[in-house]
């Protein structure tokens, strides 16, 4: 791996214009496509070259992207990590090469490695969903939770926020908790298997909207979509439409465009000489349900 010293990297940048790498966990999810494209477009509006790299939820591929970005003379990384612990080493690679990293949506479990981490407040968002879940299930019944990637802190922040509310109601009984890696098809398969063992569930909470749609597909196939209430998290386009159509009950609206633009703006400020950034910047999550869905657009505001 070639690592350029500060003076050499500055000379390359002044000759060719500064370059920003947008490295995201996966482009196999519309939410992350919006995050990546918004970050890249905002960097371009600020006058920089920008390239998107897809890690395909693979930390080793993510490492390749970081090494490529550094050896190719990129000046900053707007980063959506694949793993809260496994991605730390990659951010350190960039830091040691004097390339600033700004994390988007997903965090790494280390302070003062990335310049700043702009993160959805998943815990608080799922407290709101938990309260609505309790209300809609009338405080009783069997339910299922479908988790995302076990190495992503968002998975556990969302689960903990949800359970901080739901666990206070003893007549609400979780009969299954399985991960589906934030993947729609995996969630459909998980839901199909769970229904064979627990056909009498009343609700399912999914850690993202892709999994909510997969779970809903399985319920439709089993003829149970009218009996089981589905709750998601993200604010993705297909779930907003499904809420409008009275199919999905609710989701947590994240704001990927705001997160991405903030990260790109921070990189610009860094290039301009600013060094004092908050280590973590929380972005509010808002609950969207069938009562207020017409007040929202997919993926939140710009």
Automatic annotation (TrEMBL):
Instruction: Please state every residue range assigned to the domain named Periplasmic binding protein.
Output: 20-274
Q: Which Gene3D superfamilies match?
A: 3.40.50.2300
GO CC annotations? Answer: cell envelope
Ranges in a coiled coil: none
Database matches in InterPro entries? Peripla_BP_I, SBP_2_dom
Quote the CDD domains the UniProt record gives.
Answer: PBP1_TmRBP-like (cd19967)
Compartments, as annotated in UniProt? Cell envelope
Q: Name the SUPFAM superfamilies for this protein.
A: Periplasmic binding protein-like I
Q: Which UniProt keywords apply?
A: Signal
Q: Which domain of life is it from?
A: Bacteria
The text of the family note is:
Belongs to the bacterial solute-binding protein 2 family.
Q: What is this protein called?
A: D-ribose ABC transporter substrate-binding protein
